[in-house]
Amino acid sequence: MNFSIVVPIFNEQDTIDTLYQAIVTALDSYDPCFEIIMVDDGSTDGSFSALKRLAEQDERLKVIRFRRNFGQTAAMSAGIDAASGAIII
Fold it and tell me: Which residue in 3, 51, 9 sits closest to 28, CA to CA?
């Protein structure tokens, strides 16, 4: 694994698909050996459902879900801990 992209998510249901597609489009042409780790930081909208749907379609997407909001720092830390890439973005 060359790259791990860590993205904290909190109530971003309406933008998750666009963000995911932008990351995949940018990296697919550069280096197809990457993973995306999206950490749902206790969202109360449909963010987790959207993430789960995308993860079922793309094995490069890992989803971590917090039961409640712990904040951006905790979400980034969890994503970094789960990353397997040589470079973490």
Answer: 3
